[in-house]
Amino acid sequence: LKAQLTRARAQWNAGRPASYTYDLRQIAAPILFPDTRVTVQAGRVTRTDLLPGQEGEPNQLAAQTIEARFDDLFQTLQRQSRAACPDVQLSFDPALGYPTRLYSGMGDNGIADGFGEWTIRNFTPLK
């Protein structure tokens, strides 16, 4: 997974746009956060908005650039490498390399520790 992460990050760094939007769906068991659109302009998160059909406030954990998501993925792999029975799954966009999915939990299904998962959809470069 670390090699996969390194390759994807290099791919992202080679062609990343400075401005873009993406939609984030996130679960931190047992909490399902509202689906949130993240807007990044000139390398900074400038806004978060609820997606249509969602209620409440935008997910406060959503406000991250793709670079920050890569940093979080690296930290997750570091933490999980010390766990007794880690279960980590990663997916990346084949064209740009940005992460599209993270699942992190325990392979022993230890519900006491829960699990976390997020997916990125509708990534759109801005001009």
Structure, explained:
The protein is an alpha+beta fold and 127 residues long. Helices cover 23% and strands 39% of the residues. It has helices at 2-15, 66-80, and strands at residues 20-28, 31-32, 36-41, 44-50, 86-92, 99-106, 116-125. Strands 1, 2, 3, 4, 5, 6 and 7 form a seven-stranded antiparallel sheet that branches. The longest helix has 15 residues, at 66-80.
Class by alpha and beta content: alpha+beta
How many distinct beta strands? 7
Helix content: 10-25%
- Counting DSSP H or I runs of 4 or more residues, the number of helices is 2
Order of H and E elements: HEEEEHEEE
Shape: flat
- Whole-number radius of gyration? 15 Å
User: How is the biggest beta sheet arranged?
Assistant: 7 strands, antiparallel
- The end-to-end span amounts to 32 Å
Percentage beta strand:
35-45%
Helix/strand layout:
Blueprint: H1 2-15, E1 20-28, E2 31-32, E3 36-41, E4 44-50, H2 66-80, E5 86-92, E6 99-106, E7 116-125
Antiparallel strand pairs: 1-2, 1-3, 1-7, 3-4, 5-6, 6-7
Summarize this structure briefly:
This protein is of the alpha+beta class and 127 residues long.
List keywords for this structure.
127 residues, alpha+beta
